[in-house]
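User: Predict the complex with iron/sulfur cluster.
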Amino acid sequence: MRDTLPLLERLPFPAIRRGRLETLQVNVGYRCNQSCLHCHVNAGPKRSEEMSADVADTVIAFFQRRRLATLDITGGAPELNANFRRLVQEARALGMKVMDRCNLTILEQPGQEDLGDFLAANRVEVVASMPCYLQDNVDRQRGKGVFDGSIRGLKKLNALGYGRDPALTLNLVYNPQGPALPPPQAALEADYKRVLGERYGIVFDKLFVLANMPIQRFGTTLLKNSEFADYLQLLHDAHLDANLDGVMCRNLVSVDWRGFVYDCDFNQMLGLPLARGRRARVHLSELIDDDVAGNPIRTAGHCYGCTAGQGSSCGGALKEAAE
Ligand code: SF4
Ligand code: SF4
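Assistant: Here is the predicted structure with iron/sulfur cluster placed in the model:
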């Protein structure tokens, strides 16, 4: 895996600061049942980093104290972590919205047979990667058989009421196959709804359209293909200042499996921790009574992945691109 940070740090990004904290995004570990080509986490079955029960306790103490609106749980495949269900239940007990970044095939893994029922019973919002509605494209990016497994997962979620019951939100995530900007979200969402509906009877709520980040596995592929500089230039040239207000790091902190805090999950993967005063990095336990509003956000060239064109946040497009 090549470290793209030195290259990204050469490209300055406009200075931005944190706003009010609303979302705690928790990466519970890098273990995953898949090894997707574009994974910005470099997750896979052999990764052993896992959030411990002690760190999960700190996470719970943090959201209990701070009364945040949303807990966003990611990984790897976050459901594989032994603390996943406890985190969900504690957050839901406070009335928080809980999001599970689910890869769909996890629903068929041994030991996860009741996962769909658990998610539905706890009204967990499912955010599922589905980079195309065509089998070849999905299998090329995410592995052989992933498309069929994802379709079965979506059908299972639909049968539980996801995408049909307003209390059971099912959102899909698209990212481009290669070093290109994603197409406009509204048109692609309409295509997804038509094709998945007609061919498989699948329904879902929204499609989030995200740009690929030039980091980790995708960044390494770009370097290997000598496409890194061009892709970064593409993101930079498509930057819109109007997207700066909507980037997710304004209102979210990202926590790693050890409890250290970052401005977002991408910075976590780059090893760029949230800096607080003289401290180069902070642990979540140090922030329980410390409001980070106004703190400078650590940015570099990858941030253009969030502000290029229509922009990308954890909730998809920010602004429509200028034609
Ligand atoms: S992209 Fe998601 S499903 Fe694929 S390897 Fe990474 S964490 Fe796993
Ligand atoms: S990558 Fe995006 S979310 Fe992360 S710090 Fe940069 S602008 Fe913010």
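The radius of gyration is 19 Å.
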